[in-house]
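Session log. Operator J.P. requested a structure for one protein chain; no other inputs attached. Running the standard single-chain path with token output.
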Amino acid sequence: MKQKLLSFASAAALVSTCAAPVAFAATAPLADGTYTITVSKFNSNGTLSTVSSNSAVATGEKLDFTLSSMPTKSDANFLLFELKAANGTVVRQGFAPAPPVSATNKLGINEMSDKQAKVVKEAAALAGSDDPILMSYLLVILRSPGITDADIPVIAQMGKAGILGSGGFEGFLTSPSGGNITTNQLKSLKDCLIYNSDGTQKTLRSFTEGYYDAVNMMTAEEQKEMQKAGGLMGEIFIDAATCAGIKPDLVLAAHNAAGVAVDDDGSMDTLWAQNPNFASAMDSAMTTFHLRISASNLADEYSKALTALGASGSQVTDFLDAGRSLMTSFENLEAQYAGFYTDPEGYAASKGTTVDVIQGELQDAYQAAFTTFQGSIASKPTDINTMKTSVLTILPHGAMLPDDFGTYTMFTAQDQPTCEAAGGTWGMTGCVANWPIPQTVMVTWLAGILGNGGDFAYTRDTTPLPSFAEGFWGGECTMAADQATCNMSGGMWTQSNSCVVMMQKGMCVGIGGEWNARHTFSSGNAAFNGFQGIQEDIAILEMKRQADRETMPAAGESEQLYEMRAKKNFVDGLATLAGKITGRINAATPISTELKQAIITLMRQPNM
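Structure written below.
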């Protein structure tokens, strides 16, 4: 217990008026006078122990101070701060992660942090735990101060059910049929939410620092800065998962598991009944959280895999620039819609519309930001041409690449203007764009190892193509025909004296053919055939994920359940594909497990 927790130059801005746009209620100012600042630590069983009590004077509706002796993260996970008036009444409170030794944490206390602290105290006592995942989850859903005292135990129960309840977040991650992570990995995830030795990664310290900056402003921008801080929770969970050695995709699925557990618990129904405006705010916060965490995860996974496969300097720069722009776009949206997160009904009324309309606009805005990101990471034509040249050097003389080699369908661009704005080309099959930088890097890497004496092989997957895709998927149709007729039909005459034509299943069956969703690639190079096989198998897994998501829930089942299953099945499917890769990067060195995973990651299309 020896480090400063809070600092700003020589003092910390702890409390201020919560300034807000005119359309929304402002927080009652903090009266000038002397206050007592009581600091308590959360014990592992969820109880509190007081560690210090100091006095400070508020002037100009703001109270600045520095505390010179505080517990560190080895003493406790979290600290609670209470500002008490002369009569002992608590007028403001907030909580923060305990700082590491030889470091400081910043904290701003205002109306929002006051409500968060009340819920956190209730949840810790209810759960009998100071679990960092529980605390973090509550910060995800608590982005509006519009809760009543009656709501606090309900929200605390939601947190307990979602994180610690049967089949919830932690139950999913540790279940053999779920994430199947170890108890040590789960503990590391909790530790990494509080502190990460990699200073570039975001933690709960980043969240509380955002509130500190917001409170210190003492302007109408405070609300925007608070919502920016709230929006960081997606990146905080992704960074913690990486720190703990857990696949971030599993953490995404675990959040859906938390949603399923909350639905089963019934506490969300209770909240909708007693405070529909706040329940709507929570629903909006969770919706955008899932969009943001999915996009952040994909960008992060791509970035790590690029490094593993030796992307060029310009490719890495272009990708990282696109990733930073995506995060900036998300932050701007958090600020732009700050009033909506705080008070959905009031915000919608001020715009002359409804909550549902604003929520739709917000989701569309997030999707538009991600579509722009997809366009920004498209490979340059020069890189595509370089890749094609490299591939042709490993193929037999005279071999030709498929016409669509180096392009993919951008599913998120559903119309021509959106497609063209993202750098794609609109056509009969939708929006076609150049491969993203990661995929181009992977194929160029493959050509490089083959030229260096290495080899590459892949055993095809057997996951069936979902029925909804059979209407547009061009599979192989083996049909009865002589060689001349086959050639005239644009088919390929095989060594087994059969004719194979590319067409949709319905057309194939209609002419009496035998249809197969998977192609038999015959480029003349086994390694390149393997690459094309991976590409097609991943595309089928993405189709299956879409089908899993769109399955109509049975009576009493939650949409979150199907989203969780879709994510889990997709993660498992990708892991299976990685295990089907064999080969060497040169004459002697096998392709490592890390490289196999990077190959699969870079072969994924940038679709959430």
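Operator note: Confidence is low (pLDDT under 50) at residues 1-28.
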